[in-house]
Amino acid sequence: MISTRTPSRTPARAALALAGLALLAACSGPTASTDDTPTDARPPTTGDLRVAVISHGTAGDAFWNVVKNGATAAGEQLGVAVDYHSDGDPGRQATLVDNAVSQRVGGIVVSLANPDALKTSVERAVAAGIPVITINSGSARSAGFGALAHVGQEEDVAGEQAGRRLREAGKTKLLCVIHEAGNIGLNQRCDGARTGFGGAVATLQVDINNPTDVESRIKGALQTDPSVDAVLALNPQVAVSSVNAVRGASSTAAVATFDLNGDVTGAIKAGDVLFAVDQQQYQQGYLPVVMLKLYRDNANTVGGGRPVLTGPGFVDGANVDRVAEYAERGTR
Fold first, then answer.
1. Cβ burial 229-242 (10 Å sphere, 16+ → b, else e)
2. Is the dihedral of CA 179, 185, 187, 190 positive or negative?
3. CA atoms within 13 A on the CB side of 35
4. pLDDT of 257-269, one tens digit each?
């Protein structure tokens, strides 16, 4: 079962100090004009800072629990009130952004898995004078919407590196499993993997909300085409299903995945997963809260118009023992 434990302790304050120093040293990024916004519609500039973190995560998704943990830890350390909300439906996620605007929060952190669905709501927040930082997906659209910065990894680059690693492992035919329809970041991962792999790459669409069907579809694909010798999952839960599917199909395909949890680190230790692409999503929750605090209190921005990258890193047999501890406590 996927672990969703909250961390038993927050990272050392030294890590916060280092993050703060990095942000204070950064150059200015884009800001949006709010001249037409009524004064009473703008968020307060004094008093306690309240930040709304709004993701496209689905209920029980261990990945987004780690993002939430990062945002919560930063809020506790900085005295910032953090409200975390999520909805996998793009329309309902946009409504959550609209609600945050109507509540006059002091900052919004939002993932852009479906930028077109979020565009109007994000631009409305910016017009209301609320600073917005985007995370995870949609970096190419972030500045155009008026966001202060984007925090995440470049999905096509990460996918290319994953594909290259599988090619270097001697694999010749790759199955890339997409678990959320309409999520541009997942398609970018598979497109990048195709570039890095250089061999035959097929994609398989599954629904992460139906784990039994996910395993069945992957198993069926492996049985239909026994020449597939590598499976690239884009989510830890799908990685576990992929391992089970490989066994069920009596396949020798190697499994690799994006992102971490305790099950994935255990599977790497056991030799069932070759490696995990780690985008260090804890930072995607943690850093935006720090950035919004610095922006409100000291007018600092970070990134200079470019994404603040949290990955990709790679976890494999060489470093899994160290990382596993952090994954178990919900910070990796």
1. bbbbbbbbbbbbbb
2. negative
3. 1
4. 999 989 999 999 9
